[in-house]
Amino acid sequence: VLGPINEFGFRSRLEKALGPDWVSQVLVCSMFGSNFMFKFLVPSQGLGGDP
What we know:
Helix content is about 75%, strand content about 0%.
């Protein structure tokens, strides 16, 4: 029972902090974050992407 309630409270706090488009901000941040980690954790030679 505690999980959903805490998650909901956290979400409402995020909405107040970031505004109505907080979801897109979080998505963009997580996208950049995973891209950043991906470039550092995975060697670029096997990907055919940027060096």
